[in-house]
Design goal:
It contains 14 helices and four strands. It has helices spanning 15-28, 76-79, 96-106, 119-124, 126-129, 143-147, 158-171, 181-192, 196-199, 217-226, 228-248, 251-272, 310-320, 323-334; strands at 5-8, 67-68, 88-93, 174-177. α1 (15-28) packs parallel to α14 (323-334).
Length: 340
């Protein structure tokens, strides 16, 4: 199994669920994480990543960390200072239409969104609300482009798009697609030589469907145009994702693998969870399992079954622990003397 990993955690793209998988694997195999200085959950985002943002990094005696997965704005030369040369790089993408809709709800407090009553209103006259000079403007336009380290307000010329796609391809070994999460996990498992249980997960940081609404076609087109760079990234890597499946696994085997993954997930849900799945934040009984609530989104969580034996309880708890709580626990374990 590969243990040196860089995961670029792209906002609002099922990346908290992927992070849980990395946290569990790292904890099980006693790996070191590149934590932000003083704990916390972001590597001085939205600034471009620098090696000195990592707790325990020193240029004089560079320490290599196994897993780098906290929110950052990608800058590969700096990333290379904190991980081994053989590290595997991967990230996850989401359809920019759903991504924008999700961001609008989740980052409602951001300067670009706070005065617009609806996404429709924002998209009708974006420059009434959007000022690229504001320090939180990246949440409102080409968010994936920004997280990958590029300029979200750059011109959309064929040449520039081509250079951006080539740069991403040169840096990353795999780009997952959140709409095909299970297929993505199968590809990830293959690439990292992990077993099935290492990539099983329950969806984390997902929001209640009561705050979601279908988007009319006119808005969909406006979102694509407003986020044209993200759209170019997504459509390109969605295509190469399926090309890779055809080349490395084949559709039939992929179907079998996805079926096995879903069956194992269902089995774990029956073992671990009260009821059939996620519940609203107010219904989460154990406050340590309550995810951070943000913006206008209602972030769902889980209740564990009572009376599980110690080993099962531990495994189940790790599957449903929200990102911030899990990150903080691992930080304390890695740096027992430095409590955030």
């Amino acid at each position: 199994p590969k243990t040196d990993i860089v995961f670029l955690k792209v906002h609002k793209s099922a990346s908290s669920t992927v992070m849980n998988i990395l946290f569990r694997f790292g904890e099980t195999h006693n790996l070191t994480f590149a934590f932000p200085i003083g704990g916390g959950n972001q590597l001085f985002y939205p600034r471009h990543f620098l090696a000195r943002f990592v707790q325990g990094f020193s240029p004089r005696r560079p320490q290599r960390f196994n897993i780098l997965c906290h929110h950052m704005r990608f800058l590969q030369p700096e990333v290379q200072k904190v991980v081994s040369r053989s590290a595997v790089y991967f990230s996850i993408l989401r359809n920019p239409v759903q991504l924008m809709e999700s961001s609008f709800v989740y980052y409602k407090g951001a300067s670009a969104f706070s005065h617009a009553h609806s996404l429709e209103e924002f998209l009708s006259h974006p420059y009434l609300y959007y000022n690229p000079a504001n320090k939180d403007s990246h949440y409102a336009r080409n968010l994936m482009t920004f997280d990958f380290g590029f300029n979200p307000n750059g011109e959309v010329s064929a040449k520039r798009v081509q250079l951006m796609l080539e740069a991403i391809e040169a840096s990353f070994d795999l780009l997952l697609i959140s709409e095909y999460f299970d297929e993505s996990m199968v590809l990830l498992k293959e690439m990292l030589c992990w077993d099935l249980d290492s990539v099983v997960s329950f969806p984390l940081n997902s929001r209640d469907s009561s705050t979601k609404s279908p988007l009319p076609d006119t808005i969909v087109e406006k979102i694509k145009n407003w986020n044209r760079l993200d759209w170019e990234i997504y459509t390109h890597f969605n295509r190469t994702f399926w090309e890779r499946i055809d080349r490395d696994i084949g559709r039939e085997r992929m179907q079998r693998e996805v079926k096995a993954l879903r069956e194992r997930q269902a089995e774990l849900a029956r073992t671990c969870l009260q009821g059939t799945g996620s519940v609203a934040p107010k219904d989460i009984k154990d406050s340590s399992l309550r995810p951070l609530q943000h913006g206008n989104a209602k972030i769902l969580g889980y209740n564990l079954k009572q009376g599980l034996d110690k080993e099962t309880e531990r495994m189940c708890r790790r599957l449903v622990t929200p990102e911030l709580q899990y990150s903080s626990a691992l930080y304390k374990k890695q740096f027992p003397q430095k409590h955030p």
